[in-house]
TrEMBL record:
It comes from the Eukaryota. It comes from Quillaja saponaria (Soap bark tree). Residues 190-291 form the Fe2OG dioxygenase domain. This is gibberellin 2beta-dioxygenase. It catalyses: gibberellin A1 + 2-oxoglutarate + O2 = gibberellin A8 + succinate + CO2. The lineage of its organism: Eukaryota, Viridiplantae, Streptophyta, Embryophyta, Tracheophyta.
Length: 336
């Protein structure tokens, strides 16, 4: 493997060579729970929402809410995003990540948002063996973000519009099932904070205990994920890590912290992670539905579990906790 791609290879090797010393004499257990057999997430056919039959629409709507409460994750079929668009997006994503590290990191691509790994990590459980581009929706149409990748701009515009439409459809179903108008979140979710993340998890030759992405919850309303067939995504279910079986026909949806707070814990933001693969790289694209930074997040019902807070306040608290302790604390900071 080339020294500069990934650029932190030597640093990772040095830290992981003696993990027991790094953690004060205790070996870090990469699996903090027992990994169950590969499982299928709840699978929901969104054609039910488009049915002329009221009972079929209601059944689909209830299935979305039940999965959001019981799992915090579900998969959707017939989601309205053209398979050819998904294939084009994946082809352009692969081309982008095949570029040399220096070009990805220093050419200003995608709003200069390229990141590799976790340079600030001081112990193995803080590492994410992943490279990514994070781009706000408001920047996706800007030609200056793409350089020679002009076709990527065209595809990303189409892809982000389709994902945004789907995210708002699902959010509308979830708020309606709590007894609110389906468009109640429309005014607070905008392009300045919603974003796409293009992920590449290179094959990891260093250690089987390395995370592709460290355990975490998402700090948004909801996330929609398009992943390949390599696998590696795991989520916490009944105090155990569950390996998610990839489904090439489905997109994965998961609830974020803000929806858990807004729903007063009806919907669950569930801890999840990506396990690094020693032989194969993995690609995924995530769409994050977020409010504006000054939007006030309050409970949709009383008595409220959480105090009111803005998205900006929440983000700042998460960032400060990560700096202080190396991990996100999240919603527990805001419990009344």
């Amino acid at each position: 493997m080339i020294d500069s791609n990934p650029p932190l290879l030597h640093g990772y090797k040095k830290l992981l060579r003696h993990p027991a010393e790094t953690l004060g004499g205790k070996c870090f257990d990469h699996e903090t729970g027992v990994v169950m057999e590969e499982c299928q997430l709840p699978l929901i056919d969104l054609n039910g929402l488009r049915s002329q039959n009221e009972k079929e629409r209601l059944t689909c709507s209830v299935a979305i809410s039940n999965a959001s409460s019981e799992w915090g994750f579900f998969q959707v079929l017939n989601h309205g995003i053209c398979p050819e668009l998904l294939r084009k997006m994946r082809r352009e994503q692969v081309k982008l990540f095949k570029m040399p590290f220096e070009m990805k990191a220093n050419s200003g691509l995608l709003n200069n948002s390229y990141r590799w790994g976790t340079p600030t990590a001081t112990c193995p459980h803080q590492f994410s063996w992943c490279e990514a581009f994070n781009i706000p929706l408001a920047k996706i149409s800007e030609a200056a973000c793409y350089g020679e990748f002009s076709f990527l701009r065209e595809v990303m515009n189409e892809f982000s519009e389709a994902m945004s439409k789907l995210a708002r459809l699902l959010a509308g179903v979830l708020v309606e099932n709590l007894g609110h108008p389906h468009d109640i979140l429309e005014d607070i979710c905008n392009e300045s904070t919603c974003f796409l993340r293009l992920n590449h998890y290179p094959a990891c030759p260093i250690s089987p205990e390395t995370f592709g992405l460290v355990p975490h919850t998402d700090s948004d309303f909801l996330t929609i994920l398009h992943q390949d067939q390599v696998g590696g995504l795991q989520l916490m279910k009944d105090s155990k890590w569950v390996a998610v079986k990839p489904n090439q026909d489905a997109l994965i949806v998961n609830i974020g912290d803000l929806f858990q707070a807004w729903s007063n814990d009806v919907y669950q933001s569930v801890e999840h992670k990506v396990v690094a693969n020693g032989k194969m790289g993995r690609y995924s694209i995530a769409y994050f539905l977020c409010p504006s930074y000054d939007s006030l997040i309050g409970s949709s019902r009383e008595p409220s579990v959480y105090r009111k807070f803005t998205f900006g306040e929440y983000r700042n608290e998460v960032q400060e906790d990560v700096k202080r302790s190396g991990r996100k604390i999240g919603l527990s900071r805001f419990i009344l």
